[in-house]
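Z., the sequence and structure:
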Amino acid sequence: QDTFERVFVSPGLRGVPWYVMAGNHDHAGNVTAQLRYSHHSPRWHFPHPYYSLRLHIPGSNASARLLVLDTVLLCGHTDDFGLGDVPAGPRDAAAAGAHLAWLRAQLEAAAGDRFVLVAGHYPVWSVAKHGPTPCLLRLLRPLLRRHRVTAYLCGHDHNLQYLEEGGVGYVLSGAGNFMEDSRPHEGSVPPGSLRFFFGSPASPGGFAHLRLEPGGVTVTFLESTGRVLHRVTLPPR
């Protein structure tokens, strides 16, 4: 009630489906309860810790795919209270292996989709407090590049970032609660990959909006005031 039902109450949001993924703070609580909440709220969709959505692109016969990951299941938990804390490895290696096998199969099956978006909580690349996630650099980054994934969407760091590397767009949107403007890991990302960063603590926060059209995916970073902070269009695969 405090973080969802009584927050997103605007009339324009009432009929919008919310596709949920778990992050490290969710895993510190009760993810099973969040999965079961799908049966109580018509707009809360959390069918499995990781899942695939097939998206139809209006005005075309093209499709896109969104793969929602559980990066805590893949890489392990971190309380993230220290600078640069990284996940210590999966609690269940077999479950992590099954998740990775599922992801590989889904990416193969998405070969005909015009756009493929992959979403997880931990960042692959980040210049902010937590920095890049070594586990995802090892396991996920090669798959994103090999399968020409359009973009990887994440949170975890409390700011807005856009990076490009190896033909993949990296959209970090973690500015819904508070903002941090430090960039201690600026030297930990590939040179020239950071295209946009916003973390002003005085800002009321913001989010990333993605619009899928036949000719491209337009990523717009918005402040909650409605101010456009940055925009980029990613081409079809």
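The mean pLDDT is 95. The longest helix spans residues 93-109.

Let me know what you think.
H.
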